[in-house]
Design goal:
By secondary structure, the chain is α+β, with helices and mostly antiparallel strands. 53% of the residues lie in helices and 18% in strands. Helix 2 packs antiparallel against helix 3. It is elongated, with a radius of gyration of 54 Å.
Length: 330
Amino acid sequence: MADKDPGASHSLFGLNDDTPTRRATAAEPSPGAPQPPAGTPQYVLVQQGPQAAAAGGKVLPWLVALLGVVSIGNLIFAFMARSQFNDYATKQADALNLITRRLDSGDKLYAELRGHSQEIEKKLGMTQEELAHAHELAAEVQKQQQMAVKQLNQAIAQKASADEVNKLQADSNAKIGGLNSDLAGTKQDLANTKSEFTNALTGTKGELNGAIARTHDELVALAHRTDRDYFEFTLPRKKAQQKIGTITVELEKTDQKRNVFSVYLYFDDQKTERSNKAIDEPVSFLVKGATSPLELVVNKLGKDTVSGYMSAPKGFFPNATNVLGQRPGA
């Protein structure tokens, strides 16, 4: 039979290329052989020719080439992704370094301000101790005065001689004078400490808040940024005065070589001197009723002439024209 041909299976998979293509048909039945029933399907085996085998052999290289292209594409994509990841990691590292530097700078500024605060607290503690010492000296002076009066009364009552009375009076005066000297020295120390404390406090405040205006335009910009009023002034000669609100400023002298000046300030029924102050150096002073110190700055200095500005808490001089009022719409 045709389906038992040994070359049939090889021809089916294209392996038997030498065998010519042939069609297998059902064998004719022998006369005595039994006939298959009617309607039984008949199978025909067709042998594959050499052209189909050649087509199968051509497809395989194309599949290998396609696989190679896909692999190369995957490698390129992997390299690109790795490069992008490295760039991202570098940017993140730079940002982290920047944040670290800013934190270090903030810690340094905090340490400096804490040092200022501790120094001020130390001076304040010294002031309180000196004040207590002054109270003790005052009480001692009062006690010595009472004892002197009592001794004088006793001497008079006993009708002591004039020499004894004078000697007793001299001794008492010497003791009281010594105590008064100590008390005066303590008061001076208190005044000096208070002045240092005030200067340190205003200096610290100036470091935290402040900027100095050197021109009229800078002063206008400063007035817009801060919650204070600014008033310009010019003193064209020695002894020249200008009144700003309740404050009067008088020029005493200038020194162009050293870029320093001295002025008198009149306020609270007092006259105070601010001497040898540098140009662009804030000069702070307290006035009754002000919620914060007033500040005077000289930003131009000539021979016997100065000009600058004074700053005060907002609305402290309601009737004085500030720098914004001098430039409407600024």
